[in-house]
UniProtKB/TrEMBL annotation:
GO terms for molecular function: ubiquitin-protein transferase activity. ANK repeats lie at residues 51-83, 84-116. This is Ankyrin repeat family protein. Coiled coil: none annotated. GO terms for biological process: protein K6-linked ubiquitination. Pfam families: Ank_2 (PF12796). The keyword Signal does not apply. PROSITE patterns: ANK_REP_REGION (PS50297), ANK_REPEAT (PS50088). SUPFAM superfamilies: Ankyrin repeat. Keywords: ANK repeat, Repeat.
């Protein structure tokens, strides 16, 4: 992508509900230009709307891998919870976005977090019959485990 946001260089800005909604809408509708513009103006990538949703929630739910990668690369919290304790991984799993699921896990998303309904991302995938998501979660989790293994 080539676009990076350096939080240390951004002006401190208290984001209004309207600005946060604009950021979430940009992530939801795959508008990287608006998203980078808002981030460059100092809007935190982890800003939450009234329901606790972040830009990463919206991009993950809608399968926008480029937006997800941008947000992860620029420090967005991969384990951010909304008011129902859903993470971006819950939403990506529920909606069947395999590549997003993999990218979130490789970036540190916790596969064991439970939402307010006591459901993990795997539970959400099962509820929709998305067995390919379970395979993707297991594959990415194994890859993370392997990367932590040291050969002596």
């Amino acid at each position: 992508m080539g676009v990076e946001v350096n939080a240390a260089e951004q002006p401190s800005q208290h984001a209004t509900a309207e600005i946060i909604d604009a950021m979430l809408e940009a992530a939801r509708y795959d508008d990287i230009d608006d998203l980078t513009s808002l981030a460059s103006a100092g809007v935190s990538l982890d800003s939450k709307d009234s329901e606790g949703r972040t830009a990463l929630h919206m991009a993950s739910a809608n399968g926008h891998l480029d937006i997800v990668d941008f947000l992860i690369h620029n420090g967005a919290d991969v384990n951010a919870c909304n008011v129902e304790k859903n993470t971006p991984l819950h939403w990506a799993s529920l909606n069947g976005h395999i590549e997003v699921v993999k990218h979130l896990i490789l970036a540190g998303a916790n596969i064991s977090l439970l939402n307010s309904h006591e459901r993990s991302p795997i539970d959400e995938a099962v509820s929709r019959g998305k067995m390919d998501i379970i395979d993707a979660i297991n594959e990415a989790a194994a890859q993370v485990d392997l990367s932590r293994t040291q050969v002596s």
